[in-house]
Amino acid sequence: MIRSRAFAVAARQCLRRASQQPRWVPGCSQVPCRSYAVAKQDQVAKFKGKTGSDGKYTVTLIEGDGIGPEISQSVKDIYSAANVPIKWEPVDVTPRLKDGKTVIPDEAIQSVRKNYVALKGPLATPIGKGHVSLNLTLRRTFNLFANVRPCKSIAGYKTPYDNVNLVLVRENTEGEYSGIEHVVVDGVVQSIKLITREASERVLRFAFQYAEGIGKPKVRVVHKATIMKMSDGLFLSTARDISKEFPNVQFDTELLDNACLKITTDPAPYSDKVLVMPNLYGDILSDMCAGLIGGLGLTPSGNIGDECSIFEAVHGSAPDIAGRGLANPTALLLSSIMMLQHMGLNHYADKIQNATFATLAEGKMLTGDLGGRAKTHEYADAIIRKLKV
C-alpha cells in the first residue's frame, strides 16, 4: 500500500509538471497540393528552412536499415530526374547508450534541427540490448506531436475496398505511450495513461487547420470516453473547445470500436473527414486503415513538430530481402511527396506524384508485393520515364 501511495504521489507530480509547461502557440503551415496535401499557411508546424546560396534546400536523410538504402536510392534517383531543388544530408542514427538511456547521435540531432526536415527509411530496433524503439526515440527527441497518415486507394492495385480516402491525425507524444509504469506488488502492474490539455490542444488545433487546408469539411474525434471518462474525457472536452475556433469545420465524435466496425464495413462515409485521436488509438487505427488500400508499403506518413518534421516509411526494414532489389519504394516516395508539400515545393510534389500514380495505374513495372516482377530500380526507372512525358 505504501508503494502504491508513493507512486500515486509521483504520478501527480508528473501531471503537475506537464501542466506547468509553457502553453503552445500555433505558428505553422502546410500548403495544399493534390492527394497528399497538407494544411495552409501561417498555422501549425510551418517549415522554417531556407535555401542555400545554390538555391537548394538541405534535407536530412536517414536511409534506415535492411531495405532502407535501396528504397532511399530510388527516391534520390527520382528526385534527381525531376530536378527537385534539394540536396541530401545523410546521417547515421545508430543508437548509443548514454547513462543507461537510448540516445540518437548528436550529429544526427544537429542535422535535423539545422535543416528542419528529414526523410526517414525503416529502422530496426536492436533486440535484447537495452534499446527502446528508435522511432519512439526520434519522436521524443524532436517533440513530433502529430502523426499524419493519409490512406487513399491507388489505381492499379485492387483491394476489397474501393475509393478509400481517409486521413488520420494521431497525437504522438503521450497517452499509454508515456512509459509511466510501476509494479504495485508482485503480480500487479500499474500503467498511467497521461493526457494533458496542452498536448491535446496542440494536436487538435493542428487537425482542424489541416482539415481546412486539404478541403475536408469535418473533423471527428475518435475516443473511448465512455470508459476512460477522465483521460479521454479531457481530450474530448478540449476538442469541443478548440472546435469553436473553426466555425467552418463541422465537429463530431465517435467511439473507437464503432469507428473500427464502420470503417471496415464501408470507409466511404469517412472521405469528408479528418479523424483525430489519442496516441494508442491512432497507432492501431492507422495501420488498420492502411490495410484497406494494400498495406504499409503504399502508405505515406509524416511526423509533425513545432520546429522539425520527419517524413517516413512506416513499414518494416525487411532484412530477408535486403540487397536483392525486391523492395517497393512507394511508401517512402509518397512520404517524400508529403515532405515536399510541407516545404512548399508543390510543383515538384505534383510532378512526382502524377508520375508515380501513372506508373502504378499502368501496372507494367510493379514490384513483387504489388503483383509484378520489376526490381526496385526498374520500378523507379519507370517513374522517371513518366516524369519526362
UniProtKB/TrEMBL annotation:
Q: What class of enzyme is it?
A: oxidoreductase
Q: Cellular component terms, GO, for this chain's entry?
A: isocitrate dehydrogenase complex (NAD+); mitochondrion
The UniProt keyword set, sorted, is:
Magnesium, Metal-binding, NAD, Oxidoreductase, Transit peptide
Essential cofactor(s): Mn(2+); Mg(2+)
Enumerate the SUPFAM superfamilies for this protein: Isocitrate/Isopropylmalate dehydrogenase-like
Domain annotation Isopropylmalate dehydrogenase-like: ranges: 58-383
Subunit and interaction comment: Octamer of two non-identical subunits IDH1 and IDH2.
Return the protein name. Isocitrate dehydrogenase [NAD] subunit 2, mitochondrial
Organism for this UniProt entry = Endocarpon pusillum (strain Z07020 / HMAS-L-300199) (Lichen-forming fungus)
At the highest ranks, the source species' classification is: Eukaryota, Fungi, Dikarya, Ascomycota, Pezizomycotina
